Amino acid sequence: MSTDVNRRILLAARPVGEPKDTDFRLVEGPVPTPGPGQLLIRTLWLSLDPYMRSRMSDAKSYAAPVEIGQVMVGGAVGRVIASNHPGFAAGDIVEGRTGWQDYALSDGTGLRKVDPSLAPVSTAVGVLGMPGMTAYTGLLTIGQPRPGETVVVSAASGAVGSVVGQIARIKGARVVGIAGGAEKGAYLTGELGFDAAVDHCAPDFADRLRAAVPDGIDVYFENVGGAVWEAVWPLLNPFARVPVCGLIAQYNSVGASEGPNRMPQLMREVLSKRLTLRGFIVGDFADQHAAFLRDVSGWIRDGRIRYREDVAEGLENAPRTFLRLFRGENFGKLLVKVVTAGSDRPRP
Amino acid sequence: MSTDVNRRILLAARPVGEPKDTDFRLVEGPVPTPGPGQLLIRTLWLSLDPYMRSRMSDAKSYAAPVEIGQVMVGGAVGRVIASNHPGFAAGDIVEGRTGWQDYALSDGTGLRKVDPSLAPVSTAVGVLGMPGMTAYTGLLTIGQPRPGETVVVSAASGAVGSVVGQIARIKGARVVGIAGGAEKGAYLTGELGFDAAVDHCAPDFADRLRAAVPDGIDVYFENVGGAVWEAVWPLLNPFARVPVCGLIAQYNSVGASEGPNRMPQLMREVLSKRLTLRGFIVGDFADQHAAFLRDVSGWIRDGRIRYREDVAEGLENAPRTFLRLFRGENFGKLLVKVVTAGSDRPRP
Fold first, then answer.
1. Is B280 near chain A, with CB under 8 Å?
2. pLDDT band at B289 (very low <50, low <70, confident <90, very high)
3. InterPro entries, alphabetically (chains A, B) (predicted)?
């Protein structure tokens, strides 16, 4: 949509449980003008990621919450429209946490230039961006898969999970993906070359998972939590590693979970099997960015890593599109295309 | 007790919940004669350790269970009485898993010579043995305490916990010990130099613990599980490390634990605080034995590590003494003195 208005989507209320339309508010205002040292960015692609749910909450977390009335947080790919910053020029493609809005001002902090020759620029918030680097660092640094080991990943057709599984295959592991529904399963074993896929919506999910890992599980890359985790942990092998990356099944839950309390059994497994559980976020491994970009862009070029995008059009659709993540409705990296080709220059 | 009879304590039944007298059986037989390549060991000191409870059960664990009718497993310090093994001579002091019996035959496997000049030989199953090395390896390899950090250890006056706390102090950390009762607490802050002690028997234990760690917890060395763990984990700091060494509060529990299910909250903490939980046993770090012996014997000589032994007399008292571990009644490293001085040579 061509516009000389800056539309911004604000956090209107802290959601209880699943976010609702009324938790967001779309406001319009003038396109801002960059001051000294600033640049103006036109948002091209908006990334929708599970972590944003926790920023809507004021529960203690690794990052400060979005305040009520602030622009919703989010990574985006944009084009520099005007720049008073020596490091950026009009026309540059950039990636940064510029939020749910048509235009963003930036002083360059946290912004990086995207090389459009590597891959389509939308990948800068996908397979070559935060989700891809999350997969790369968490799997290789914490999971450390070895040839012949069994790696299981949940949310396996998503932006992170699909990269986890493919890198694990490249490292010689046997890979089992957990995803919802037959279509995603077929994609995992067909297009992405996973060794097996298990549908977590099946009523006998736990049995199917057990059958799919006859040698147990050496690495479990956790994106989901909840019932999936409860089915996974009894299958972990001695010395298994569990990078804890996300818990999307739990993000909207309210209050305490019904018993029995499974904690004592988990601790017993941690001890008797000498398990490692480790939570992380991609920022913990910022020093691996160059290695990540080199390796994963190479694997994309070689056809060893494939990716799939699930694209909604129009900034105004960001809230309802975001909710698809929590219903498992997205299929691949979830994006909002904010401008269509040719319409991304503001009228003067 | 001088004897030419070999008394052995066998596992008579698999305990349900807390072990009972009838789960053990004392039998008498002749002192065995070493065959080719074998040696005969007179047990001097028998070590009683929490891990033995899991060997009495046939639940899956890192080690095979003791079979019904077999001698109870256990580390011991003994004197070589006769040897047909080139590596050992009569008079040598040795340490190994020779079990709950007056005399043991060995082919030398898993046996190590003890240097009596380092410290009293009973320490070979204590501060300079398996418990001390468990503390050293788990704390330094997994816990990695840094100067100024807060380290909390449970079962803090025990064989492992007391060494954990003292090494953490040597490494410059602030150390808080959890133990049962005022007497143990006074020992921790007095004799051992801990910065604070918290009594887990106090009805307001969780509040006291919180007050004792104003800067949160960076390393929690887990020996206990159960209610202590539930009070600890909400206090863990970002990037905290949790070496999971033991769960003595849970070893005798039967069946599922009452709800609510705390697992989802724990996983949320693991993620949002990027915690590391890692189970281990001392055998995982066997390559650190020389470093352990060098460092800890040096710290004992310098007076920087102290230890306390809780000694029962007589092999026949091993079963009832063992139970004191689960009631928190031991105060220091729990040992059975199997022979008294001068009575440790068999009549010919």
1. yes
2. very high
3. ADH-like_C (IPR013149), ADH_N_2 (IPR041694), ER (IPR020843), GroES-like_sf (IPR011032), MDR_fam (IPR045010), NAD(P)-bd_dom_sf (IPR036291)
My answer on whether B135 and B265 are in the same domain is yes
**Is B346 a member of any domain?**
no
The answer to whether residues B143 and B290 belong to one domain is yes
User: Nearest residue on chain B to A226, judged by CA atoms?
Assistant: B264
Question: Are A203 and A269 part of one and the same domain?
Answer: yes
Residues 203-232 of A with CB under 8 A from B: 222, 225-226, 229-230
| Residues sharing a CB contact under 8 Å with residue A287, sequence separation 6 or more, in sequence order | none
Residue A347's pLDDT band, with cuts at 50, 70 and 90, is very low
Half-sphere exposure of A158 (CA within 13 A, CB side): 31
Query: Amino acid identity, residue B261?
Result: N
Is residue B125 predicted with pLDDT exceeding 70? yes
| Predicted local distance difference test score (pLDDT) of residue B348 | 37
What is the least distance, in Å, from the CA of A203 to any CA of chain B?
21
Check if A286 contacts B (Cβ < 8 Å): no
Domain shared by B155 and B254, yes or no: yes
CATH number for the domain including A328? 3.90.180.10
The reply to whether B314 and B288 lie within a common domain is: no
If you write DSSP's letter for every residue of A144-192 in order, what string do you get?
---TT-EEEEESTTSTTHHHHHHHHHHTT-EEEEEESSHHHHHHHHTTS
Task: Count the helix, strand and coil residues of chain B and give each as a percent rounded to the nearest 5.
Answer: 30, 25, 45
Query: Is residue A56 a contact partner of residue A14, using CB atoms and an 8 Å limit?
Result: yes
Q: What pLDDT is recorded for position A344?
A: 47
Closest CB to A260 among B247, B257, B284 = B257
Instruction: Note whether B196 and B255 are same-domain residues.
Output: yes
- Chain B residue at shortest CA distance from A250: B264
Give this prediction's pTM.
Answer: 0.90
Q: Which domain holds residue A11?
A: 5-126+307-337
Assigned domain for B343 exists: no
Which ranges of chain A would DSSP assign to H, the alpha helix? 51-55, 130-137, 161-170, 182-189, 205-212, 226-232, 263-272, 289-301, 318-324
Beta bridge partners of B236: B217
Does residue A344 belong to any structural domain of this protein? no
Distances (CA, A) of A203 to A183, A236, B14, B267: 17, 21, 36, 24
- CB pairs A-B closer than 8 Å: 144
CA-based R_g, chain A, Å: 21
d(CA A136, CA A289): 10
Please indicate, yes or no, whether residues B113 and B206 belong to a single structural domain of this protein.
no
The C-alpha atoms of residue A200 and residue A273 are separated, in whole angstroms, by 25
Looking at residue A270, which CATH number applies to its domain?
A: 3.40.50.720
Q: Which helix (H) or strand (E) holds B209?
A: helix B205-212
Count of C-beta atoms within a 10 Å radius of residue A70: 13
The answer to whether the complex's ipTM is over 0.95 is: no
pLDDT in tens, A238-289: 999 999 999 988 887 777 788 889 999 999 999 999 999 999 999 999 999 9
DSSP-derived pairing of the beta strands B236-244 and B276-279: parallel
* B287-294 long-range Cβ contacts below 8 angstroms, 24+ apart: B288/B133, B288/B136, B288/B137, B288/B141, B289/B133, B292/B132, B292/B133, B292/B136, B292/B137, B293/B118, B293/B128
Nearest beta carbon to residue B266 from set A60, A62, A263: A263
Report pLDDT for A348: 36
**Number of separate domains in chain B:** 2
Considering the domain architecture, whether residues A293 and A317 belong to the same structural domain is answered as no
Residue A251 lies in a domain: yes
A64 pLDDT higher than 90:
no
Q: Measured between CB atoms, which of B260, B272, B279 is closest to A261?
A: B260
Residue A250: closest CA among A20, A59, A89: A59
